Amino acid sequence: MINDIKGRLNQIVNPASGKSFEEEKRWKHVSLDGxxxxxxxxxxxxxxxxxxxxxxEITKSLSDLxxxxxxxxxxxxxxxxxxxxxxxxxxxxPAPIVAxxxxxxxxxxxxxxxxxxxxxxxxxxxxxxxxxxxGKSTFTANLALSLAxxxxxxxxxxxxxxxxxxxxxxxxxxxxxxxxSEKKIIPVESFGIxxxxxxxxxxxxxxxxxxxxxxxxxxxxxLFDVDWTGLDYLLIDLPPGTGDIQLSMIQNSHVDGAIIxxxxxxxxxxxxKKGLEMFKKLNLPIIGMVENMSSFICTSCGTEHxxxxxxxxxxxxxxxxxxxxxxxxxxxxxxxxxxIGVPYMTQEKFNDRLVWKAFEEISCKVDSFFxxxxxxxxxxxxxxxxxxxxx
Length: 391
Prior knowledge:
alpha/beta, GMP Synthetase, Chain A, domain 3, 14 strands, 34% helix
């Protein structure tokens, strides 16, 4: 198998030169220890964004031979300045015609105004959890992709200012949004999904130390100063909690429905119920609840383990009288896909797995929520009445 691996690796193309790694003699070391691959290449002249694109291609080319977690990619550089020169060269590249200048955000206090629609968007869906660590951003990204597979045009706002993760999940960590001639921010696009995140405007290692109300102005910009033209759905990935950020977004825009994410255990459900009550008090239609990380199926023995408890959300929806949208099990590839910027629902090879089918089912239920309900033609229906069959 090692020869097959090396053959594929040699065909990887350097985006900086357009030549294959074999032509440039890039590979320094390639070895296979059992099912674990270590591959090391020379990255001279390759910028960070080009490096990320290359390593995405490497994992994609080997995905049918090796588990992604078993692929370790290393780099060496004999001339570190080449990396910075590549960055400089990249920054000097001409911008697209529609983009006139780098986009800017304006921190300031958000104001509560009359609800208004977001131009260019048909339906807005808020996705909340009440607490962190339940996989909400990964869910949001894969729900967007699943809706897109149904032919919908979808956008996402990463409203988690303190922990923006969508640039990583969508593989666009190096992007810097630009604005068009109408001073509208152009959303970044990945896998057909348009999205905007605070992560584009800060360095990944920098903490955000603004107060909550100051962020309201930035989030309003994400709603009303971004060119969202042509979207069927705009998903808002809300941060954990029920504070200023959530209120300013929901109260300023006309949100059409809300989804609540929770894991099965009681402590997560407690916070999810608070998020649900917030949506209800703001008079948002509840599309339903999703149980994430519902179980884990061992890849070695095939046994299903309910790590966080079993059926907690399914039981809670009965008490709360809201729809149950479905359960999503844990799967290694769901996590690893988000880490490397190749989301699960972009990988067709998983289409027979439980996670894939769960996202398809949930996205169909979400889309159906906004479709007109059929008219009852039963014994109390119109035709029954004119025929004298009604009461």
